[in-house]
Amino acid sequence: MPAPRTVLLTGAAGGLGTLMRGLLPAYGYELRLFDSRPVEGEPDALTADLADKDALREAVDGVDAIIHLAGISLEASFDKILKANIEGTYNLYEAARAAGVPRTVFASSNHAVGFTPRPQGDDPLIPVDTPRRPDTYYGLSKCFGEDLAQLYWDLHGMETVSVRIGSCFAEPTSVRMLSVWMSPADGARLFHAALTAEDVGHTVVYGSSANTRLWWDLSGARALGYDPQDDSEPYAAKLIAEQGELDPANPDHAHLGGHFTTHPPQWPH
Ligand SMILES: NC(=O)c1ccc[n+]([C@@H]2O[C@H](COP(=O)([O-])OP(=O)(O)OC[C@H]3O[C@@H](n4cnc5c(N)ncnc54)[C@H](O)[C@@H]3O)[C@@H](O)[C@H]2O)c1
Predict the structure, then answer these.
(1) pTM of the shown model
(2) d(CA 61, CA 52)
(3) Contact 105, 163 (CB under 8 A)
(4) 65 pLDDT exceeds 90?
(5) What average pLDDT does this structure show over 62-78?
(6) Across 44-182, where does the E strand assignment appear?
(7) Atom number, ligand 1, closest to the C-alpha of residue 49
(8) Residues 6+ apart with CB under 8 A from 103
């Protein structure tokens, strides 16, 4: 596959979309932006909902690849998740299939496997083929997205890398995040690898930096050519002094999904 040049970035107005708008052009991509909200400072961005099939047809026309970030990124009612994350992702894949877009990078989440007990002591890192155990309707919608991507590979030959993202923020802000943090620069490295690796079919990988306190196996991401450069460890002493060590007896700390398993943050809209 020739290296993609024009890439549709859905969810461009969001936190991760904003970070990637800043970082991905340096890899040579021309980004076409899509979000249901206006993208600040980007008058050419397409402002439309994933429910709008005409807008999606326009969005995918002529692009070489898609990075699909749009959707509800916290817990919400099943009806809302169904519309934005499940039907919305289906609508996008259908538009991509009709337009012949060969490669998508799908923003999956650690919350697809959020009820997986987190490794402790000498436990092995969590492999990518661990049984899925979503911790929310949100996590369930990411399981759907991964399965949809598999179906569109098997049925239509459309390639996807599903990235089970940990937490992509400028800095880790909690002790849990020391294990799941993905620095923005590593996020861009991973998306670039996912866009350019050969013969990915449908590949699921975890997305994080090379954290000293890592919980999951990054070998799948590394096999795509991802070479993470960051580690949350320099932030550890300060965060642990402020918040204390994770207590595995605390249900919020017992699983990969952390507090999403007990009191997930709610989508405000
Ligand atoms: N940021 C992270 O650390 C993280 C971790 C795991 C997974 N993810 C996934 O990555 C993606 C981006 O995350 P984020 O943190 O930037 O979330 P975010 O909530 O900041 O951004 C999501 C964007 O999607 C848009 N959107 C929501 N519903 C839409 C719809 N129906 N049609 C069109 N646009 C819609 C919103 O307007 C918003 O700008 C999400 O899919 C999220 O689930 C992010």
Answers:
(1) 0.98
(2) 15
(3) yes
(4) yes
(5) 98
(6) 46-47, 65-68, 103-109, 159-165
(7) 32
(8) 1, 4, 64, 65, 66, 158, 159, 160, 161, 195, 200
Residue 1 has a pLDDT of 66
pLDDT digits (tens, 9 = 90+) for 100-114: 999 999 999 999 999
Name the residue with the closest Cα to ligand 1, atom 42.
73
Compute the distance between CA of residue 248 and CA of residue 253 in angstroms, rounded to an integer: 5
Residue 52 C-alpha from the chain's centroid: 22
Q: Which residues are catalytic?
A: 138
DSSP annotation of 227: -
Q: Is residue 84 lining ligand 1, measured as CB closer than 6 Å? A: yes
Q: Which amino acid is at 217?
A: D
Q: Is 76 in the pocket of ligand 1 (CB under 6 A)?
A: no
Report phi then psi at 56, rounded to 5.
-65, -40
Is the CB of 71 inside a 6 Å radius of any atom of ligand 1? yes
What's the average model confidence in pLDDT over 186-195?
A: 98
- Cα 68 to ligand 1 centroid, rounded to whole Å: 9
How high does pLDDT run on average in the chain? 97
